[in-house]
From TrEMBL:
Protein name, as recorded: S-adenosyl-L-methionine-dependent methyltransferase
Record's keyword terms, sorted: Methyltransferase, S-adenosyl-L-methionine, Transferase
Organism of this sequence: Corynascus novoguineensis
The UniProt record lists the keyword Transferase: yes
Gene Ontology biological process terms in this record: methylation
Family per similarity comment: Belongs to the class I-like SAM-binding methyltransferase superfamily. Cation-dependent O-methyltransferase family.
Claim: Methyltransferase is one of the keywords in the record: yes
Gene3D superfamilies named among the record's database cross-references: Vaccinia Virus protein VP39 (3.40.50.150)
Family matches, as InterPro entries: Cation-dep_OMT, SAM-dependent_MTases_sf, SAM_O-MeTrfase
GO molecular function, one term: O-methyltransferase activity
Record PANTHER family: CAFFEOYL-COA O-METHYLTRANSFERASE 3-RELATED, O-METHYLTRANSFERASE-RELATED
Pfam family, one: Methyltransf_3
Length: 240
């Protein structure tokens, strides 16, 4: 196959998602309950990662064995719970950043309910500011907040060397539903959300275009989920 993405129809894409989910390590019952709780409680629940992404997070964390995880964009706490599950071996500290009072309350409730307060630390406030207060290194960093903030977040992470020498940054939604590739790339997107994703697409296209020119890092944009960019130090020894 010379291309990188199969041309699935919308309906087939849903079937493929379900097929992948059924053929992957399952998320825990707690995660499944929390996912369903979020889905039914919040009108903007599509901000939450999918169930299959939860499996991906658990798998990735078990594979990379981070000692510290940083997440920018907590929402209802689903991904933080997945990072927690994936780091039971390493007992990693999970630091998650969120500014919405409503979502801070929802996440805190979930973290208490599922007994993860021992390792999950939620830092409240705009990530543009809270990120600046962080010290030390993180082995796995998940960027999943406001899309017009990605460029600044990644610059800060690299400038402050918050990424450990062999760590990885994972940036979610870098396709902006396809609109970072082109404004005509998501005919299925409804008109209610299209303007929002169009502006995200512009910001993320700029982010994607500039990031690959940054000589400090190796960058890989993968056509999975809504586009995931992986970033690592080009030379972990010097992090020049
Ligand atoms: N990581 C979550 C998950 O996988 O379920 C989803 C995160 S959701 C896509 C993005 C979150 O980032 C929202 O809860 C939003 O309130 C938060 N957010 C947006 N802009 C932010 C900012 N400038 N500072 C902190 N949080 C922000």
């Amino acid at each position: 196959m010379l291309g990188s993405i199969l041309p699935f129809s919308e309906e087939t894409a849903d079937r493929v998602s379900e097929y992948c989910e059924n053929s992957s390590l399952p998320i825990t019952d707690a995660l499944a309950d929390h996912w369903e709780w979020t889905r039914t409680r919040f009108p903007d629940a599509d901000k939450m990662s999918s169930r299959l992404q939860g499996s991906w997070m658990i798998f990735t964390a078990r594979d990379r064995k981070p000692k510290r995880v940083l997440e920018i964009g907590c929402f209802s706490g689903y991904s933080a719970l997945a990072w927690y599950e994936g780091t039971r071996d390493t007992q990693a500290e999970i630091v998650t950043l969120e500014y919405s009072k409503k979502m801070i309350a929802a996440s805190r409730e979930a973290f208490k309910k599922y007994g993860v307060d021992d390792r999950v630390k939620l830092i409240e406030g705009p990530a543009e500011q809270t990120l600046q207060t962080l010290t030390g290194e993180f082995d796995l960093i998940f960027v999943d907040a406001n899309k017009d903030g990605y460029a600044g977040y990644v610059q800060t992470i690299l400038d402050k060397k918050l990424l450990s020498p062999n760590g990885i940054i994972l940036c979610d939604n870098v396709f902006a539903r396809g609109l970072s590739v082109g404004p005509d790339c998501a005919p299925w997107l409804n008109d209610h959300v299209r303007p929002y994703w169009l502006s995200c697409g512009q910001a993320l296209n700029e982010f994607n275009t500039n990031l690959v020119k940054d000589k400090r890092v190796d960058v890989l944009l993968l056509p999975v989920f809504d586009g995931v960019t992986q970033i690592r130090w080009r030379d972990p020894a010097t992090r020049a």
